């Protein structure tokens, strides 16, 4: 028991020893202990007894210096307040003028809440001793400096106001002045007659620039049309189908079946009011796929639906959906089968859908060679009808459109079926398109006779062009073959 008490007493003494230094450190800045306080008081009393005669002599001088320092400090504080008032007034004037220039003088202030964080300055303890009083003393010359600074700030405000007024006048004058009109680069009409069948004088006198800028056509538009024509000419052979797949790749499909499918695609386009360009794109996709994919008879119409669906998605704004193609095919195929065939077509073509068709050249060629709406409708009819024939696949789209223009001019009775303007635009001579023109004339003559005698057996494309909006182009009789042959003789002898 005694050992236990002694050990506990030792432990208490140890804990007291540990707390002692921590207590002394934490309270060193707050309250001194009694012994230290007493000792300091004794020292202070002794120092006070020794310094009494000295303190009595210095009280007057210290009091006068403190009073003067306080006076100078007050004047310095007043100067700072005046400077702040000047700065606030300056900011107010600047904001008012800015709102006036921006036209928002009478608008209410901004509704956003602007938060300004104010951080208080650290408080510094001041000791009323001689050294601190000397630091607070401000010479009398500072009053003059404050006045000079105020005058300088006032002059700066006036200068800024004058500059703002001048800047506002310059802005108003600039806004009143009209902008310079845009001057496009000059458009140059260049032609080359060296490869034509016309004489140089005749060519230069009769050639016409159909792409020239006008009130409705800018020079940029004219240059863009020429660039597009060059692009189509360069890429038309890249996606041109090869007319050799029947009998080689396709064993179960013949030319007649292809004609029936293409004619049915015309009906699909009319049913859903699709553009003729979509029809041309679909036929191009069909011919290119038949070169790559082996198809049997049961899948042939399915291939046509898939190609028409892809072409409609590429060309139309609101293409028909897959359910409408299921309906138009009389429920022969399901939606899943059509989507699967669409995937096969895209994979076979490597997603190269943007091919060049006749509609890449039709607008410019008709503008160069067609003078009436009847001739333009006949050219469109001949280009659409040519897609039904498997033998016409081998001709380039540009050559097919040029041949249609030539045949339309001969059929309309034009004295000159070919002109320097047509050569300048198409870059073809009559001798270069003669074979395509004769094949196109043969097809037109056969269909023209069917439309005249047995209209119920006419193709869907002929029924389409019986409408008044196409000037009943399918009812125009084909020209005489001898007349057509004679027209080529004019240019071969030149």
UniProtKB/TrEMBL annotation:
The lineage of its organism: Eukaryota, Sar, Stramenopiles, Oomycota, Peronosporomycetes. Residues 263-347, 360-442 form the Cyclin-like domain. Keywords: Cell cycle, Cell division, Cyclin. Residues 82-100 have a biased composition (Basic residues). Residues 62-78 have a biased composition (Polar residues). GO terms for cellular component: cyclin-dependent protein kinase holoenzyme complex; cytoplasm; nucleus. The keyword Iron-sulfur does not apply. Residues 356-479 form the Cyclin C-terminal domain. Belongs to the cyclin family. InterPro entries: Cyclin (IPR039361), Cyclin-like_dom (IPR013763), Cyclin-like_sf (IPR036915), Cyclin_A/B-like (IPR046965), Cyclin_C-dom (IPR004367), Cyclin_N (IPR006671). Residues 1-168 are annotated as: Disordered. This is Cyclin N-terminal domain-containing protein.
């Amino acid at each position: 028991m005694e050992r236990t008490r002694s050990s506990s007493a030792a432990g208490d003494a140890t804990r007291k020893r540990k707390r002692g230094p921590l207590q002394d450190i934490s309270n060193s800045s707050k309250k001194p202990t009694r012994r230290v306080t007493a000792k300091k008081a004794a020292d202070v009393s002794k120092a006070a007894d020794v310094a009494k005669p000295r303190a009595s002599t210095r009280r007057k001088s210290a009091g006068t210096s403190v009073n003067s320092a306080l006076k100078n400090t007050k004047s310095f504080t007043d100067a700072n307040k005046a400077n702040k008032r000047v700065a606030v007034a300056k900011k107010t004037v600047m904001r008012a003028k800015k709102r006036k220039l921006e036209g928002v003088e009478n608008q209410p202030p901004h509704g956003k809440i602007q938060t300004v964080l104010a951080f208080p300055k650290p408080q510094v303890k001041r000791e009323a001793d001689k050294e601190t009083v000397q630091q607070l003393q401000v010479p009398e010359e500072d009053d003059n400096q404050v006045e000079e600074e105020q005058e300088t700030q006032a002059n700066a405000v006036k200068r800024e106001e004058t500059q703002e007024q001048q800047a506002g006048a310059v802005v108003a004058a600039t806004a009143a002045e009209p902008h310079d009109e845009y001057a496009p680069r000059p458009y140059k009409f260049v032609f080359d007659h060296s490869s034509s069948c016309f004489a140089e004088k005749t060519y230069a006198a009769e050639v016409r620039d159909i792409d020239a800028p006008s009130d409705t056509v800018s020079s940029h538009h004219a240059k863009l049309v020429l660039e597009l024509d060059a692009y189509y000419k360069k890429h038309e052979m890249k996606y041109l189908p090869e007319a050799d797949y029947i009998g080689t790749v396709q064993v179960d499909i013949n030319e007649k079946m292809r004609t029936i499918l293409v004619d049915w695609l015309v009906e699909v386009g009319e049913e859903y009011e699709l553009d003729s360009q979509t029809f041309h794109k679909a036929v191009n996709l069909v011919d290119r796929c038949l070169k790559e994919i082996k198809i049997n008879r049961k899948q042939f119409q399915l291939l046509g639906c898939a190609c028409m669906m892809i072409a409609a998605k590429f060309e139309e704004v609101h293409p028909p959906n897959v359910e409408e193609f299921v309906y138009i095919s009389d429920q022969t195929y399901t939606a899943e089968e059509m989507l699967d065939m669409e995937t096969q077509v895209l994979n076979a073509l490597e997603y190269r859908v943007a091919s060049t068709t006749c509609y890449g050249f039709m607008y410019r060629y008709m503008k160069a060679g067609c003078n009436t709406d009847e001739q333009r409708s006949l050219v469109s009819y001949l280009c659409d009808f040519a897609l039904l024939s498997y033998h016409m696949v081998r001709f380039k789209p540009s050559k097919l459109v040029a041949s249609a223009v030539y045949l339309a001019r001969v059929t309309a009775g034009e004295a000159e079926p070919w002109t320097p303007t047509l050569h300048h635009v198409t870059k073809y001579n009559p001798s270069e398109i003669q074979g395509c023109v004769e094949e196109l004339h043969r097809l037109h003559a056969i269909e023209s006779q069917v439309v005249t005698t047995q209209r119920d057996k006419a193709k869907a494309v002929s029924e389409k062009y019986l409408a008044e909006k196409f000037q009943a182009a399918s009812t125009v009789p084909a020209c005489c073959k001898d007349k057509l042959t004679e027209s080529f003789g004019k240019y071969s002898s030149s």
